[in-house]
Structure to design on (128 residues):
């Protein structure tokens, strides 16, 4: 094997590892599609609905009752979220909210719900 082959193998392994980390299941994360997410959100008595998009995205339209804590601030603002609340996260497509969920789960939140497909898949009301 020459050095360029080794570099390609290492690069391929790195890409595979990154894809695995991006799409692998996360313990404590409940991935829900639109309807089950809305149902669980409606049934929850102590809930915190969080939009992890940036402020300008939030202002362009969000789910009623949501607060805006961008992904970049979720770690520093986690104290605003009670660990006794049912946490519901969403973003535009579901990827940033999954990252935010990982941060919250590592911070000791027992369960976090993520809207699969993000607000793009949301069929309920929106505030614009």
């Amino acid at each position: 094997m020459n050095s360029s082959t080794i570099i390609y193998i290492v690069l391929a392994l790195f890409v595979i590892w990154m894809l695995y980390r991006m799409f692998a299941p996360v313990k404590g994360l409940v991935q829900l599609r639109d309807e089950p997410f809305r149902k669980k959100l409606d049934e929850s008595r102590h809930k915190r609905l969080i939009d992890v998009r940036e402020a300008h995205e939030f202002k362009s339209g969000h789910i009623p009752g949501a607060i805006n804590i961008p992904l970049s601030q979720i770690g520093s603002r986690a104290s605003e979220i009670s660990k006794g609340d049912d946490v519901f996260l969403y973003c535009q497509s579901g990827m940033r909210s999954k990252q935010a969920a990982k941060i919250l789960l590592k911070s000791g939140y027992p369960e976090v719900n993520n809207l699969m497909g993000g607000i793009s898949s949301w069929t309920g009301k929106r505030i614009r």
